[in-house]
Input
Amino acid sequence: MIIHQLDNVEVNLEDGHKYARRDIKAGENIIKYGNPIGHATCDIKAGEHVHTHNVKTNLSGNLEYTYTAPEADYVPGSTDRTFMGYVRKNGDVGIRNEIWIVNTVGCVNRIAERLAALTGARAFVHPFGCSQLGDDQLITQKILKGMVNHPNAAGVLVLGLGCENNNIAVFKEHLGEYDPERVRFLNTQDVEDEVEEGVRIINELKEYAAQFERQPVPVSKLKIGLKCGGSDGYSGITANPLCGRLCDLHTSMGGSCVLTEVPEMFGAEHLLMQRCVSEAVFDRTVALINDFKDYFTRHGQVVYENPSPGNKKGGITTLEEKSLGCVQKGGLSPVTDCLDYGDVITKPGLSLLNGPGNDIVAVTNLMAAGAHIILFTTGRGTPVGGAVPTVKVATNSALAQRKANWIDFNAGRCLDGEDLTEEFYDYIISVAEGAETKNEANGFREISIFKDGVTL
Output
């Protein structure tokens, strides 16, 4: 592995854990990736294990930040490279041509699943839409709106009950303009046989979807989401930097990438702020970070209650260490936008997206923001998949071999000095053109919506 000049620890490539390169005094910062990841709670001798038993986070509450203007204006790159995608009537591009069933409320989950089984449509169950108030319901509506509008769905059946807070009439007000050929609605309380009626509508949507065929579109139209879960000590050495290089390559050709998991930016946010293309984007990024810290403290939780037990077992000690590895998925790309729940990716470059690190919530947020495909790095392994193709990237070869039924790409080969960027990008383009990811082949596709409010 590459060790930064300032690092006073090194990673054992056998287990992903850290060991002191030299004697470290109590109170001295532990340096990894060229940045502090916490401080020593006691003297540590050269060669000793450096982990939770002798390291503590430096994180606390909100911070103040100073904007520094970039040396030059950001100008998106371009390329003649294309991929085969589906061009929708409104000009959006999809990489799948599916029929989606989007529920306004969890009460119709089982009906949605029955309709999916009978027709081949995709159902995405969730427990929300009933008894929610205020901003809590608004987040649900925003995520469902993003799902209805997602171009990977050639047709959408919005399935409701009829008496829920987020009933179809209310949801339509939030949804705004829609194409009635592409988006259909069914209140199950309003018909005698909801299954028969649902099958009829979905079959009509399938006929509508059949008119779309793949055609060449600029690779810049592809929107890529970036996510990690079940991280380990290799995450910031192999898979995340590989995604970062892919992000830089894609954005250099005018493409868009989006990075979420705000709590896993804590301790590394300064690296993202340094790349904001304008003071307005910088200010929104500062608010993104501090508002999420306020969310923690509002609920009486400390901002550094992370990493997870699995992360620690894999060699990650503090949130700063996790974050410094996590943000590497964004490479060195300019930060061109900062998005809230329900906002859609509109700009080339790297966007930051509001939301927690929870795997299914984060994947759902990325989908609702318009990501066609999600790159999900993992060192521990996970079968989870979202509504869009979810590419699992292993941080180590042992995981890739052991869980070949989950893993799509092995970034562990980076430890042997291989530059996998072009190979990885070619693979991503193949997925965009229809190659099945493991989550698709396994049928592991789900959503979850962020909740922070009152339930009646």
Remarks:
- The mean pLDDT is 94.
